[in-house]
Amino acid sequence: MKKILLFTGDYAEDYETMVPFQMLQMVGFEVHAVCPDKKAGDRVITAIHDFEGQQTYSEKPGHYFTLNYDFDKVNPADYDGLVIAGGRAPEYLRLNPRIIEITRHFFEHNKAVAAICHGPQILNAAGVVKGRRMTAYPAVGPELIAGGAEYEEIPVDKALVDGNLVTAPAWPAHPEWIRAFIQVLGGQPLA
């Protein structure tokens, strides 16, 4: 069974935490959801971001999400892939040196990485975006360009694959984003 590491935290986007966590388990992966300074059984609060016609997304209270693994026990060598949830959590998670170290491991070993929405902020902070074709929530685009990425603005329900990296603008892309991530992991498409 392949093992996946999922970064999330307080005010991560609800769907971008819960949906990949559940879908990847559903198809047979072992998924460890972690957050710095927290252990298995601790909870994070999520936020629901929606697109309702304003100039940016709206934010509403989400659910409590229970982490299932201790952050301090993570050995990145034990994992086949990394998923980075979006929302506001990446903004502060990228300040954690261990998050950056773990993220770099996945790129140094060409392992599968899926980042959505604001998740690529962590990739940029880890210095792994230079020369990579990728997307994110549009407000993150300037950061990725400044980091040397070949940023592409794509429809909100689409995903972009560049080698081991799968990125998407936001949760409406889940079907394409998660399908592409499973394929990068070496799995067969579900449909």
Number of domains: 1
The total count of helices amounts to: 6
Helix/strand order: EEHEEEEHHEHEHEEEH
> What is the tally of beta strands?
11
Sheet of most strands:
6 strands, mixed
CATH superfamily: Class I glutamine amidotransferase (GATase) domain
Assign the structural class, choosing from mainly alpha, mainly beta, alpha/beta, alpha+beta, or little secondary structure.
alpha/beta
The strands making up the biggest β-sheet line up spatially as 3-1-6-7-11-10
Q: CATH class, anyone?
A: Alpha Beta
Strand portion: 25-35%
CATH topology, by name, is: Rossmann fold
Features:
6 helices, three-stranded mixed beta sheet, 11 strands, Rossmann fold, 191 residues, alpha/beta, 26% strand
General description of the model:
The protein is an alpha/beta fold and 191 residues long. The protein has helices at 14-26, 89-93, 97-108, 120-125, 141-146, 174-184; strands at residues 3-7, 12-13, 30-34, 43-50, 58-66, 81-84, 112-116, 133-134, 150-151, 160-162, 165-168. The strands form three sheets. A six-stranded mixed sheet has the order 3-1-6-7-11-10, sandwiched between helices. Strand 10 (160-162) and strand 11 (165-168) form a beta hairpin. The longest helix has 13 residues, at 14-26. It is globular. The mean pLDDT is 96.
What's the quick description here?
This protein has 191 residues and is α/β, with parallel strands linked by helices. The protein has helices spanning 14-26, 89-93, 97-108, 120-125, 141-146, 174-184; strands at 3-7, 12-13, 30-34, 43-50, 58-66, 81-84, 112-116, 133-134, 150-151, 160-162, 165-168. A hairpin with a 7-residue loop joins strand 4 and strand 5.
